[in-house]
Amino acid sequence: MIANVHEFFDKEKREEQPIMVGNVLRRTSEALKVSEWSICNVLKEQHVEGDVSSPAKKGRKPSCGPAQQQTDNFLEGVIRQRVHRFYTNSELPTMKRPLLVLRDNVDYPYGRSTLYTTVKKMGFRYKTRNKKTALYEQHRIIAACHEYLRKILTFRSEGRPIVYLDETWLNAHHTREHCWIDYDGKGGLCVPSGKGGRLIILHAGWEQGWIADAELVFRGKTGTGDYHQEKNTKHFMEWCEKKPIPNCPSRSVIVLDSAKYHNSVVEKIPTKSSTKKAMTDYLDSHNISYDKKRLKAEIFMLIKACNPQITYLTDVVTVEKGHRVLRLPVGHCELNLTDLVWAQVKGYAAANNKDFTMAVIERFAKEGIQNVAAEKWKKCVDYVIREVKLHYRTYDGIVEQVVERLVIEVSNNDSSRSESEEIFVSDSEDVTDN
Questions:
Q1: What is the rounded distance in angstroms from the CA atom of residue 144 to the CA atom of residue 125?
Q2: What's the CA gap between 98 and 379, in Å, rounded?
Q3: Average pLDDT value for residue range 69-83
Q4: Which pLDDT does position 364 carry in this prediction?
Q5: What are the residue ranges of helices labelled H in 89-177?
Q6: Which range has highest mean pLDDT (94-108, 109-123, 301-315, 399-413)?
Q7: 144, 180, 253, 384 from 153: Cα distances, Å
Q8: Contact 127/133 with Cβ under 8 angstroms?
Q9: What angle do CA 74, 163, 157 make, to 5 degrees?
Q10: pLDDT at residue 116 is higher than 50
């Protein structure tokens, strides 16, 4: 507003004559660069109210909820390590502390709401007791992680090959995020807007390199969203039966993550949310007698008492070939060393991609796969065996001591919990107040 008035009087000075002296309203409009109608409304308000109120500031539109940003496996691994490091230092990580550390060290691009959603999805729980808060993993996930480590160590001691099977993606516009540019911003590649088409890659490998003839590269239908939606159980099982499983070394242990199409079941076991008809059909198919007059809850308890075991399609196929499947604990994708291998493949493609077309990125993806030789696979295997095993055994012991100390302090000092305190617990945890 000040700049507009200054420009108006400066124009009068240059032209050495006043502008529209006889028309005050028009002169005011020209000086302020505001419509005459707006000036009339302000003058009317001053005449009626005796004063003029400042216009209300336009705030941000309320959002419908926290932003559901997609975080990849690498970023989730970094978040997990940063949270664990607080416990290593005997500190309790609130939600604010990891956020500040992530922003300072890895340029975390999201806010508190997205971090909260991400850590809950990864299996952490955020507890508030006596105004002391802590982030720690559910007991069942910690137990599953250690069970996985014990099993894989047993298989290695038996001399069984450990084969890691996984998938990833590459976009046509994939390139390095950082490059040297001039002080005035000049330099760097001219990358097209958007991510471009998507390439889906499936492969398997072990400490001696890639499994022969197991590679599958195809173009996705979309370039955005979760790349897991580009695949389904039928296509995944067809690939497994034809390529990696027949070519794996004898008596291999195949490591899979928790992707939905990795864990399709032969027969779906009814849950509490299933219909009563689905429950009775299950009992009929297994020749289990029951009273048809019983309630749904009673029928479900009968199914639960039978202790049905889940059978996965991948388990059936691998056992037929003399192999077996070992599943990664939920939310611990960093235990799957293929993330380290995929990083090398993507790095090769990013360093060489200059045309940003699907044909070019497909060629560099295949070259990047060939570039990861057996010695690089061996280094990744050694890293997971050495670093990850040491990290989890050290971390989980410290977490148990720190959280136990917190619970003891609260139990001794506070026998009640205020209504404003919020506690998130898993089904396996039993929280009582003394």
A1: 16
A2: 30
A3: 73
A4: 94
A5: 96-106, 112-121, 139-157
A6: 301-315
A7: 14, 45, 12, 12
A8: yes
A9: 110
A10: yes
Asked if residue 60 belongs to a domain, the reply is no
pLDDT of residue 302 exceeding 60, the answer is: yes
Whether residue 432 sits in one domain with residue 409: yes
Helix residue ranges, H only, 19-136: 24-32, 36-49, 73-88, 96-106, 112-121
CB 88 within 8 A of CB 394: yes
Is 343 domain-assigned? Answer: yes
In this prediction, residues 306-327 reach a mean pLDDT of 93
- Note whether 164 and 229 are same-domain residues: yes
> In this structure, are 124 and 245 located in the same domain?
no
Q: What is the domain-level CATH number for residue 197? A: 3.30.420.10
Closest CA to 338 of 376, 304, 292, 386: 376
pLDDT band at 34 (very low <50, low <70, confident <90, very high): confident
Of 192-196, 295-299, 412-416, the one with minimum mean pLDDT is 412-416
Is 167 in contact with 220 (CB distance < 8 Å)? no
Number of domains the chain contains: 3
Report how far residue 337's alpha carbon sits from residue 340's, in angstroms, rounded to the nearest whole number.
5
Q: Residue 235 belongs to what H/E stretch?
A: helix 233-242
Binned at pLDDT 50, 70 and 90, residue 254 comes out as: very high
Length of the chain: 434
Same domain, yes or no: 259 and 345? yes
Domain of residue 434 covers 67-154+388-434
**Are 255 and 401 contained in the same domain?**
no
Written in H, E and C, the secondary structure of 262-319 is: HCCECCCCCCCCCCHHHHHHHHHHCCCCCCCCCCHHHHHHHHHHCCCCCCEHHHHHHH
